[in-house]
Write a structure and sequence with these properties.
The chain has helices at 41-45, 68-73, 85-90, 105-115, 134-141, 143-153, 158-168, 174-181, 187-199, 207-217, 261-270, and strands at residues 2-6, 10-17, 22-27, 48-53, 62-63, 96-101, 119-125, 221-226, 247-252. The protein is α/β, with parallel strands linked by helices. The longest helix has 13 residues, at 187-199.
Length: 271
């Protein structure tokens, strides 16, 4: 695990692994960390040197100075370049690939607005960003929704109760309920959920620009969905890059929690 400081923002923690000679910047899902893509050794690690960046409020990536006001203001979208520029300069990286899983895909896709001429490959796993989840957007970006989110997250028992009720009325399937409840069983975890979702609220890719840049530079895109995913299933990306010849889409027998060794085996067989 390594880290560097970004002036005016905070500390970025990252994990470096893989055997390839090309760099891949990878953004994990909520509650995970930058090591998540180690679960895809045959599919990714043989091709790339992966820089797995910890999202903010995940295992050492933190804002400085810490304040609720700064969290609620959110990371400025244009500042996403500051999060990787120190690394690009230090290692004299000209071209690279990007990958994103779930909410981490917002970071990966937003990079397409600023580095399209340098990005050579895109991997998206159950991606948020293409068709954002309305509920997640409202609790992070809508002022009233975020206020309610804050009150619920800081309450001792309300959020677990709401999740349980949502599961009972089938608003959340069992897989998503299990993922969510494991992240809110303590006050510190609930604060982290609020902080992370609120601070990254501005990192919303402009998909018109993203798609235009992909087509302009003919960047290969791999999209992986889970047939059992109740959060970001295949249809959420159905309108993206229609008839684009350099797009490969997989709809595999997984749920939302998919960055696991079994996915590595499935993708390796498909490739």
């Amino acid at each position: 695990m390594n880290s560097y400081e970004v002036e005016g923002i905070g500390t970025i923690v990252y994990h470096e692994y893989g055997e390839g000679d090309q760099y891949l910047f990878a953004y994990h899902g909520y509650g995970m960390n930058g090591k998540q893509f180690q679960n895809l050794p045959s599919y990714l690690l043989s091709k790339y040197k992966v820089i797995g960046i910890n999202l903010f409020f995940h295992e050492g990536s933190e804002i400085k100075p810490y304040s609720l006001a700064k969290i609620q203001q959110g990371l400025a979208k244009k500042d996403i370049t500051k999060l990787i520029e120190p690394f690009l300069i230090k290692h004299e990286i000209q071209d690279f690939a990007i990958a994103g899983y779930s909410i981490g895909s917002n970071f990966a896709l937003t990079l397409m607005e600023y580095y399209a001429d340098r990005i050579k490959q895109i991997y998206l796993f159950a991606p948020d960003g293409i068709e954002p989840n309305a509920f997640l957007r409202n609790i992070s970006s809508n002022r009233f929704g975020n206020y309610l989110f804050y009150q619920i997250a800081y309450h001792q028992s309300l959020l677990p109760f709401i999740l349980k009720l949502s599961n009972q009325i089938h608003f959340l399937n069992d897989e998503l309920y299990g993922i969510a409840i494991a992240e809110v069983d303590t006050l510190e975890k609930r604060k982290a959920v609020y902080n992370c979702m609120t601070y990254q609220k501005n990192i919303v890719p402009d998909m018109v620009i993203v798609e235009s840049n992909i087509r302009k530079y003919e960047i290969p895109v791999v999209m992986v969905y889970g047939k059992k995913d109740g959060l970001f299933p295949l249809q959420t990306g159905a309108h993206f890059l229609v008839d684009y010849p350099h797009k490969t889409t997989y709809n595999l027998d997984f749920g939302h929690f998919m960055i696991i060794p079994a996915l590595d085996e499935a993708l390796t067989k498909q490739a």
